[in-house]
Amino acid sequence: MGSSRTRRIDVRVIAATNRDLSLAVQEGEFRPDLYYRLNVFPITVPPLRERGGDIGLLTAYFVEKNATRMGRQIAPLTPDLIERLKSFDWPGNVRELQNVIERGVITARQGRISLDTALLPVARLEDSVGSPPETIFSGNILTVDQLKQLERDKLIRALQKSRWRVAGKNGAAQTLGMPPSTLQSRMKALGIKKPV
């Protein structure tokens, strides 16, 4: 770049999109010359709803990944639960499944994921731990920051319900179904402190 000499390089360009580019070219929304430069070896990945066999494997992976990261013990998912996941349309594809499972791990009770909670719009999650969330996000797909805020709100509500008691009978850790040490580390990570 910026040199007056021509240099030959050998590169491959890999481009990905969720749009039908051939249709976009026909409708005048995408440059034909760029389309023909990119369309050398197209690979079509079908949406998650057409890959039901992958849902069980992806779900198991996401459960293990999130449970390990959060220090939670989650029971193996039942065949009925997997079938329910397979019947869902997944407009957000794998990312949406990942978010639903992360939400399921966050809201799990006694180590069991409830899809009744995980698949609900976030605005209705208030039923699981008392008062409505302070921040309500619309739709089923959440960003990482939104999920952190959701977790933070849930932990604060559980702590308020237990009068900021972390451990012991009726403590927030028991309500949330996690070890007190895990709750303390999550509080530290999310910047949650008992009000003075």
Which spans of ≥5 residues are poorly predicted at pLDDT below 50?
121-139
Count up the domains: 2
> What would CATH call the architecture of the largest domain?
Orthogonal Bundle
Q: From the helix content, strand content and strand pairing, which structural class follows?
A: mainly alpha
- State the distance separating the first and last CA atoms: 58 Å
Largest sheet: none
CATH top level class name of the largest domain? Mainly Alpha
Number of alpha- plus pi-helical segments: 9
Q: What is the overall silhouette? A: elongated
H-E order? HHHHHHHHH
Residue share in helices? Answer: 40-55%
Do you know the CATH topology of the largest domain? Answer: Helicase, Ruva Protein, domain 3
Count the E strands.
Answer: 0
- Assembly type: single chain
Radius of gyration: 22 Å
Beta-strand proportion: under 5%
Structure description:
- The chain is mainly α.
- It folds into two domains: 10-44, no CATH class; 48-189, Helicase, Ruva Protein, domain 3 (Orthogonal Bundle).
- α3 (52-70) packs across α4 (79-87) and α3 (52-70) crosses α5.
- The chain has helices spanning 21-26, 32-38, 52-70, 79-87, 93-107, 115-118, 144-161, 172-176, 180-189.
- It starts with 20 loop residues before the first helix and ends in a 7-residue tail after the last helix.
- The longest helix has 19 residues, at 52-70.
